[in-house]
Fold this sequence. Notes:
The protein is mostly helical. The protein is 72% helix and 0% strand. It has a domain at 62-150.
Amino acid sequence: MSEELPHDRTEAPQAGDSTEPQGAFQALISPLRDFAGRSRGHASDYFRARIELLTLEAEEAAAAVKGLATSGGLGGVLLIPGYTLCMIAALQALAGKWESSRFGLLALVAGIVHLVLGVAILLRTRSKARATRFFEESREQLKRDQEWLNQLNPTSPPPTSAPGNPD
């Protein structure tokens, strides 16, 4: 004895119902949905490739920074004993015990060698750091992509770089 309420009934649309405009609309929209799905796939492929490139370049940058930090640390560590040995030699010379011991001369020579090596390593590290350009390929890819987009839409104004940024 259950009564069906009008909103409980689910009937399939009958031929000749008012669903034909929806079917025509679906026929028009279906290719657009397919295109949007393919475009979304292409966009995700594009972004996936860019992220992979950024990941590789980030690993390279991390290795380069690690090498620069190690080299700079070694140079700095060499400066400390060099300075200390030079100060010991200077104090011994000021105390007037320079002639009686060869330790002062040995400390001075060892200190100067440490200082020269430390400064040389730090200068080399600084020049390497200035020559290292991080994320170079990613920047080039973005420039190429921007040029390609500008070719597609020639009416858009060219991008301006930020002040102080030559890229």
